Structures are given as C-alpha cells and as structure tokens.
Amino acid sequence: MDNSYENCLKACLDCLEACEVSFRKTLEEADAGKKSDAIRLYRESADICALTIKALESESDFIKKYTLLCSRIVDQCAEECKQFEQAHSMSCAEKCYLCAEECRKLAA
C-alpha cells in the first residue's frame, strides 16, 4: 500500500469505529426516534469509511472519488454529531472531522 494513504486509512478506521459506537448507543437512548437523521448518518458514515478503507487497501483507481465522497458524508455526520452532548457524539464529531480532513488531502 502507498505510504501516503496511511494517515487517511487510520482516520477512516477511527471514524468507522466512532460511528459504529454512536450508532449503537443512540439506538439505545430513550429519544432515539428524534435522532433519525443522526442514526442514518452514523450508518452511512461507517459504510463509506469501510468502502474507502477497501479502496485504499486495494489501491483502487477511484481513490480520489471515494475519498471525496467520504469527506462530504463524514463532514455532514460531524455537524449532526456536535448537536448532541453525549460523549460518544462529541468523540464521533472529532473523528469525523479528522477523517474528512485526511480524505480531502487525498482527493485533491
């Protein structure tokens, strides 16, 4: 794997994990029904991170497209996450912002 991908790969892995945690924890909350946008974005962000990781590991010809799309989705997820005060949401927002930043570097 290309060494320039390592920071992005780590950021995507961290973001994937944070989104999975927030997805599960939010579903367990009493007001989960009011957080459907966040729940959807957690899932979509985790999914695009997983796809981006696979693209990076296989050195896909479409890495720039994957990383651009990933940056957009996880940026939106971060914005949604920061509306909530739970620790998992704040952590998810931070990981999403870092992932978006690393993905934008590769997409450029």
What does this structure look like?
This is Four-helix bundle copper-binding protein. InterPro entries: Csp_YhjQ, YHJQ-like. Pfam families: Csp. The chain is built from four helices and no strands. The chain is an all-alpha fold. The chain has one domain (3-107): Substrate Binding Domain Of Dnak, Chain:A, Domain 2 (Up-down Bundle), CATH 1.20.1270.360.
Summed up:
This is Four-helix bundle copper-binding protein. The chain is mainly α and 108 residues long.
Strand segment tally: 0
CATH topology: Substrate Binding Domain Of Dnak, Chain:A, Domain 2
Oligomer: single chain
Mean pLDDT: 94
Helix content: over 70%
Secondary-structure element string: HHHH
InterPro entries: Csp_YhjQ, YHJQ-like
Pfam family, one: Csp
Protein name: Four-helix bundle copper-binding protein
Question: What key attributes describe this structure?
Answer:
108 residues; mainly alpha; Substrate Binding Domain Of Dnak, Chain:A, Domain 2; 4 helices; 80% helix
SSE topology sketch:
Layout: H1 6-28, H2 36-58, H3 63-81, H4 87-107
Helix pairs in contact: 1-2, 1-4, 2-3, 3-4
Protein name: Four-helix bundle copper-binding protein
